[in-house]
Amino acid sequence: MRRTEYAKDYEPRDASKLRVGIVVSRWNSDITERLLAGAQEILRAWHVAPKRVTVMHVAGSFEIPYVCLALIKKKKPDAVIALGCIIKGETDHDRYIASAVSHGIMQVSLSQKIPVSFGIITANNLKQAEARATGDANKGKEAAVAALEAALLK
Length: 154
What we know:
Elements: E1 20-25, H1 29-45, E2 53-58, H2 64-75, E3 79-87, H3 93-112, E4 116-123, H4 126-131, H5 139-152
Parallel strand pairs: 1-2, 1-3, 3-4
């Protein structure tokens, strides 16, 4: 299986009883809204009703871990999908943000015992980000599959 076919190669299962949260960054929204659409496509295919999905938008990727934690405490979802896009700029700022976000998401997931999937694109340029937000390579789809599979293990 090629990496870009991850979401495509998994048969949808019945996740209709799950409650799912999605936290999505507004920064690079042309990319993150595609990730959101991809995640929602997978949720529909896995029979998660829209009324069982809570979507929260945040300013940027850095805010994602905190809002994932707040969403878990308030809405009690079975899984959370974290979606964002960090594109390298002229400095190393992207590395610090990506590191903080990935560690924060893992900390939230482990401390709350809720799967929080990592749908954060880290790309060197816009072209790479667009490629990871399109079709079967859509990282939002992959993050949704990962979150649902983990939640169904409970």
